[in-house]
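RECORD TYPE: inverse folding
INPUT: structure tokens
STRUCTURE:
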């Protein structure tokens, strides 16, 4: 059967993608950020899954304010980089896994999660920056990817509890797939940041670090966090942290923390990154 063996979280800051694309990763401002991913890049070379289920949010590249699905699953053969106003990033086309995606769609919908199924989907920095941070700048991504877009842009977003339960449902669906596949689940976005308004530039390091701790050791309790707390303590865009709970729910009750990285600032946000191994992998 297929099995989920590991998961990771990472911020998906667009300026990080620009720093990679423009060759600025060694500059004094950016070097501490990219140094924090060297451990993961080495680990990823030794632990290449067949498929990554990558949880991210679209930034109005594939969707518009008129059409905003709560959960959208990429079921196509491939997903081209999106244009976000300044041109698509110079990265490879993302290759999908339509067979596993179709299985996930069936399992999750029968498990009473209403998904939008996307057979034509452009993916922006929310998905491609995490791939670049882990796999660098290859001619072809070394893994196949199933995008899972979550609405954390336009009210109302899904609750932390709903996202955690979706992760658990993904775990059940993957384990029911009768082909031997190794699967990783990535939760992206966060950590604390706010891009507009009187609190623009807001970062809450104590809250971020506590979120790390609870994600590892108390995911059931963390899943009860409310939207208002996330916005108050992690900023308006800190709501993206609910996507990390999808990853955590997919790994099962017990995990081993392999690596943690936290840095302030990366552009105007806190950079957070965590690598976990499923205890039963």
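DESIGNED SEQUENCE:
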């Amino acid at each position: 059967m297929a099995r989920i063996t590991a998961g990771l979280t990472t911020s998906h800051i667009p300026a990080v993608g620009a720093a990679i694309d423009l060759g600025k990763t060694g500059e004094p401002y950016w070097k501490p950020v990219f140094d924090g991913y060297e451990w993961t890049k080495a680990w990823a070379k030794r632990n290449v899954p067949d498929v990554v289920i990558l949880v991210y949010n679209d930034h109005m590249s594939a969707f518009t304010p008129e059409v905003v699905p709560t959960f959208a699953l990429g079921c196509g053969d491939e997903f081209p980089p999106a244009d976000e106003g300044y041109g698509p990033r110079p990265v490879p086309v993302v290759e999908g896994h339509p067979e596993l995606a179709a299985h996930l769609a069936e399992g999750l919908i029968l498990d009473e999660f209403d998904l939008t199924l996307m057979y034509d989907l452009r993916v922006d920095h929310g998905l491609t920056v995490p791939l670049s941070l882990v796999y660098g700048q290859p001619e072809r991504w070394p893994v196949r990817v199933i995008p899972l877009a979550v609405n954390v842009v336009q009210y109302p977003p899904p609750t932390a509890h709903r996202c955690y339960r979706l992760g658990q449902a993904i775990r059940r669906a993957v384990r029911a797939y009768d082909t031997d596949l190794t699967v990783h689940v990535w939760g992206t976005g966060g950590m604390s940041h706010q891009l507009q308004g009187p609190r623009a530039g807001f970062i809450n390091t104590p809250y971020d670090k506590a979120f790390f701790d609870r994600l590892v050791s108390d995911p059931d309790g963390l899943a009860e966090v409310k939207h208002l707390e996330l916005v108050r303590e992690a900023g308006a865009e800190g709501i993206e942290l609910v996507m990390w709970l999808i990853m955590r729910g997919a790994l099962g009750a017990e995990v081993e923390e392999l690596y943690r990285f936290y840095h302030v600032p990366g552009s105007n946000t806190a950079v957070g990154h965590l690598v976990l191994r499923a205890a039963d992998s």
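NOTES: Strands lie at 3-10, 51-56, 71-74, 78-79, 94-95, 116-118, 144-150, 182-188, 255-266, 269-278.
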